[in-house]
Design a protein that fits this description.
Blueprint (H helix, E strand, L loop, with lengths): L6 H38 L7 H51 L10 H50 L6 H35 L1
Helix pairs in contact: 1-2, 1-4, 2-3, 3-4
């Protein structure tokens, strides 16, 4: 008998998609913060000379995160599709089993065995594929944590460089703070995604 996808599995997959969408928006905010910082550093000139290359790093981290999340979104969509497929196959198995019980003793009852077995095999294959992609998605989510951690380090360095920027100090420190906050949000949301996937794995 094939394990039927639970409501919690659907909820987990949907919540992952929502969290990833939020990560994408935050990554875009980091990219915007980098552009703002670049403009401020340009106006500050020599006072913010050390800050200028940092803005390039921030922008690259944002691009890396967006690229990773785009890739991860494909996995999340695939998990949702596999969950729906598994649900349909499990329901098909249930209907076949019900008909098989009702048809016991009937002349052509044995003809149901083949389609039922085929439906069970397809359901098991969908479960195996789902499990494989859950593992792959966990790896991809771990990769997103790297730019988030790097962004926090860069934010700390940004504060140091901003302290040399005279009247532009507060503006550049605000940029560093926004990058740090964004990186923390990404970290938290990715952690939630990983927790949801772990729950799915444990449910298996």
């Amino acid at each position: 008998m094939q394990v039927k996808p639970t409501k919690s599995q659907f909820v987990a997959v949907a919540s992952i998609a929502a969290e990833l969408s939020a990560v994408m928006e935050v990554a875009k905010e980091i990219s915007l913060a980098a552009a703002n910082a670049k403009a401020i550093a340009f106006r500050a000139g020599e006072k913010a000379k050390g800050f200028q290359p940092i803005t390039d790093f921030i922008n690259e981290l944002a691009k890396d995160t967006i690229e990773l999340v785009n890739n991860i979104n494909d996995y999340a969509f695939l998990l949702y599709r596999l969950t729906v497929d598994e649900q349909r196959l499990a329901e098909a198995c249930g209907r076949f089993e019900q008909v098989e019980r009702l048809a016991q003793g009937a002349r052509y009852a044995a003809s149901l065995a083949g389609p039922l077995l085929q439906a069970r095999h397809k359901a098991q294959a969908a479960r195996r594929e789902f499990t494989i992609h859950v593992s792959e998605l966990l790896v991809k989510l771990a990769e997103v944590m790297h730019p988030a951690r790097a962004a926090r380090v860069i934010a700390a360095n940004s504060r140091i460089e901003a302290s040399q920027a005279g009247e532009y100090l507060q503006s550049l420190q605000a940029v560093a703070e926004s990058v740090d906050n964004a990186a923390q949000i990404i970290n938290d949301k990715v952690h939630r995604c990983r927790s949801a996937l772990t729950v799915i794995n444990l449910a298996d």
